[in-house]
Specification:
This protein is mostly beta strands. The strands form nine sheets. A four-stranded antiparallel sheet has the order 8-7-6-33, with no helix packed on it. It holds the Pfam family Lactonase.
Length: about 375
């Protein structure tokens, strides 16, 4: 028996797409599932949010819609329920700004809500993320020494700044992540070569300082990171030394300690100053960690890597390190799929495209299975999986 289901049509401006799912059921054979998955893609300044469809049976990427917005976002992230989209406001002048958009049931993107920082954060915002637990505040950073905590409405949209906080004056925080319980926020200080730890108040979402943890070597430069669902280990992209650094988290204090384990994101023998590592992403089952680096010159490629993780979050091994299609520009950002371990999205801003990479069943290698050019002069920032 074949059962077919279709998601609703959605339109944004003149573009329209129909996404479909096909489900094959049979008493004599295992379940076979083919889906079309939706991704959203941001840009470095051009005023668009792209909706991209990935068919995991045909292994194709297609442009579903292109939403014109008032301001571009080089970094986008989703609310915990995927009903709101957050982005940095890629504009200079004035205080740091952040935007949010409602995502309708038909997957269309609604009008923006903007919140401006109230404190001394005057640099362009570069990162924004929501806490994984109530009250679901949103945390924004410019590439500087301060940050903004924002409350949200019942729909998940940005409401107002509820706290402005400071790092050291020498800091340049590029990204944050949270413990699975939402009790701690970790800030990756690229300029200060450190990881900051803040406790998150479970009623107000406001922050209080816990610790500043120096990176294990000079010029490691932690940029972004992720915490394993077990809460035991944190993985930090060391942008300067082009490695993934592994840290073990104290379960009482929330403070990470370097676990004497780092894994290269460029091959041995290359000059680290020619590269700047970018992103990490934990796979759907938390059995793998994707990571990427970028090249500073278009004459060189970036690299993508996969690490196997043990159940407690410790790293079992580095599976492979492979060249990406291009340098990656300012992107080469990886986003692990929410529906399985095999797929990861990778964005490029040197040319302007999105790719889907598929891991081999053995986990020993991965390759590009789908590619979509989005050449608008600013694409592509990072991507997020909506479905």
């Amino acid at each position: 028996m074949v059962v077919s289901a279709r998601l609703k049509e959605f339109t944004t401006g003149p573009s329209m797409v129909r996404l479909s799912t096909s489900l094959l059921l049979g008493s004599c054979c295992p379940l076979a599932l083919a889906l079309t998955h939706q991704l959203l893609v941001g840009t470095f300044g051009t005023p668009y949010i792209y909706s991209v469809a990935f068919d995991d049976a045909a292994r194709t990427l297609t442009l579903a819609s292109n939403t014109t917005v008032s301001v571009g976002s080089s970094w986008i992230s989703l609310s915990h329920d995927k009903k709101a989209l957050y982005g940095n406001a890629f504009v200079d002048g004035g205080n740091s700004q952040y935007v949010s958009y409602p995502i309708a049931d038909d997957l269309s993107i609604g009008p923006a809500t903007t919140v401006e920082s109230k404190g001394a954060c005057a640099e362009r915002s570069i990162f924004v993320a929501q806490a994984p637990t109530p009250p679901y505040n949103v945390y924004g950073q410019p590439f500087g020494a301060c940050g903004t905590v924002m409350s949200t409405t019942s729909e998940g949209l940005l409401s107002e700044s509820v706290q402005e906080y400071n790092y050291l004056s020498s800091a340049g925080v590029h990204g944050v992540t949270f413990s699975p319980s939402g009790s701690f926020m970790y800030s990756f200080d690229d300029s200060g070569n450190a990881i900051w730890v803040h406790a998150v108040d479970n009623s107000t979402g406001q922050l209080s300082f816990v610790a500043n943890v120096s990176a294990p070597i000079e010029k490691a430069d932690p940029r972004h990171g992720a915490v394993h669902p077990s809460g035991n280990f944190l993985y930090a992209v060391h942008e300067g030394s082009n490695e993934v650094g592994v840290y073990e988290i104290d379960q009482t204090t929330g403070i990470p300690t370097y676990a004497n384990a780092s894994f290269p994101l460029i091959p041995a023998g290359l000059n680290t100053t020619d590269y700047w590592s970018d992103e990490v992403a934990i796979s759907h089952s938390a059995k793998y960690l994707w990571a990427s680096s970028r090249a500073r010159s278009a004459d060189n490629t970036g690299y993508i890597s996969l690490l196997s993780l043990n159940a407690d979050g410790s790293v079992a091994k580095q599976n492979f390190l492979a060249p990406t299609s291009t340098s990656g520009g300012a992107a080469n950002a990886v986003a692990a799929s929410p529906f399985g371990d095999a797929y990861v999205a990778l964005t490029d801003s040197s040319v302007g495209f999105v790719e889907i990479w598929e891991m081999e069943a053995s986990g020993a290698a991965a390759g590009v299975v789908a590619h979509l050019d989005l050449k608008d002069g600013g694409c592509c920032g990072n991507a997020v999986w909506l479905t």
